[in-house]
Amino acid sequence: MRRILVLAVTALLALSLSVGASAQTRTVSGTVLDSQQQPLVGAAVLVSGTTNGDVTGLDGAFTLHVPSGDVTLEVSCLGYSTKTIAVPATQAKISVILEEDNMMLEETVVVGYGVQKKVNLTGAVTAVDAKELADRTSHNLTNMLQGSVPGLNITTSAGNPGSAGSLNIRGVTSINEADPLVLIDGVEGDLSRVNPDDVANISVIKDASAAAIYGARAAYGVILVTTKSGSDKGGKATVRYSGRFGWEEPTVSTDFETRGYWSVYTVDKFWATDAGKHYTGYTEHDMAELLARVNDVTENPARPWVVEEVRNGRKQWIYYCNTDWYHELYNDQHPELTTARPVSSNFTLTSTRNIICAPRSMPG
Predict the structure, then answer these.
(1) For 6-37, what is each residue's pLDDT tens digit?
(2) How far, in Å, CA of 196 to CA of 225, rounded?
(3) What are the residue boundaries of the structural domains of the chain, listed by start?
C-alpha cells in the first residue's frame, strides 16, 4: 500500500512539471513573402538575441517555438532588407513581406558571397582622383592619364589641334580594334572631350573579366569616369579661377629635306626601280639647274627658282626651288591657354575655355 502511494505522488509531480514546462513556451508560425506576394524560399527567421530560428520552405512557411510572452523576430533573406517584427503574446500566426534591397550598382554589387564595390568586383583596378590630375600641364584628359595608370598605354601619333592619343590597356591582344570601353557617368563617350576640371575620379578596369558586367565591348578593359556633382556649401557662393599658359612643339625633328635636287633625285630613283621611268619628268638639264641651286637657302637673282620655258610647243613654268614646305605651313611652336572659372553654391557650375593662339597649327 505504501509503495502504491509513493508511485501516485511521483506521477502527480511529473504531470505538474510537464504542464508547467508547456506553459513556458508557445508556437508561432507564418509565411515570408516578397513585394509581389510570392513566397520566399530560404529566408531566415530568428528570435532576436538568440540562435533559435527556422528557414522557410518552398511555400515560404516557418514554425518556431518561442517563449511565452512578447517576442521579437528578425527576418532576413539575401537580396532583401532585413525586417524586425514584434509578436505579442496573443498572436500565434504572422505574415512578413520583405522589400528588395535595391542598391545602386555604381556603389555596390550583390554577389553570392557578400557585397563589393562595383569597380573592385573584377579585380585589376587602378583609381585616379582629381587631385592627382590637378598638377598635370596637359589640357587634354587623355594625355593627363599618361604615366598615372600602370598598364595603360597612350600613343600620340598626331599633333593637330583637337587630336588626342589612342588608348590601349595591357598591349594589343587582337588584330581587331583593341580600344578600351570609356564610360562617362555610365554613358559611353570620348575621353578627350571631357573637361579635366569636371573630373571627380577615374577608375581603370584592366582585365577582360570586366565583360561580365559591361559586355563584350569591355573585353579590352574599361575606363570609368565620374564627373563632379553639386555639393551643399551652406548657401555660401565660392568662385575660383585657374589658368594655364604654355607652349607646344613636336617631339620629333622637323628638319626635313628641303633641297629640290635631292628631293627630285630620291623620288625618281625609287620610282624608276619599280616603274622603269622617272616620276617627276625632270630632264638632265633640269637636274643640272637644280644642282646649281642646291645650297641656295633663299632665291638668288642670278639663279631664279622659277623659270619660264617653251616645251612641247607651249610655255611652262619650271621649278628649281629649295622651299621648306613644312615650315611654310606649320610652326614648330605655338602657345596654348586654358582657363577655368568654377562657381559653386548649392550647385557647382564649371566653365572652361581652351584657346589656341597660334596662327598656324601643327600637322596631322
Answers:
(1) 445 455 545 444 444 444 789 999 999 998 89
(2) 11
(3) 24-97, 117-227, 260-323
- DSSP lists the bridge partners of residue 26 as 66
Half-sphere exposure of 70 (CA within 13 A, CB side): 3
Give 248-273 as a DSSP string. E--SS-------HHHHHHHHHHHHHH
pTM: 0.44
Cell of 149: 595608370
- pLDDT at residue number 46: 93
**CATH number listed for the domain at residues 117-227:** 2.170.130.10
Sequence-distant (6+) residues with CB within 8 A of 136 are 144, 148
Among 21, 31, 70, CA closest to 47: 70
For residue 208, the SS3 value is helix
The CA-atom distances, in angstroms, between 278 and each of 158, 270, 323 are 32, 9, 21
End-to-end CA distance of the chain: 120
Mean per-residue pLDDT over the chain, rounded: 77
Are the C-beta atoms of residues 74 and 66 closer than 8 Å to each other? no
For domain 24-97, give its CATH number from 2.60.40.1930, 1.20.950.20, 3.40.50.2300, 2.60.40.1120.
2.60.40.1120
For residues 321 and 60, what is the distance between their CA atoms, to the nearest angstrom? 92
Q: How many residues does the chain have?
A: 364
Of 84, 80, 79, nearest to 45 (Cα)?
A: 84
Over residues 162-185, the pLDDT tens digits come to 666 788 887 776 666 678 888 888
Residues whose CB falls within 8 Å of the CB of residue 250, separated by 6 or more in sequence, listed in order: 159, 332, 362
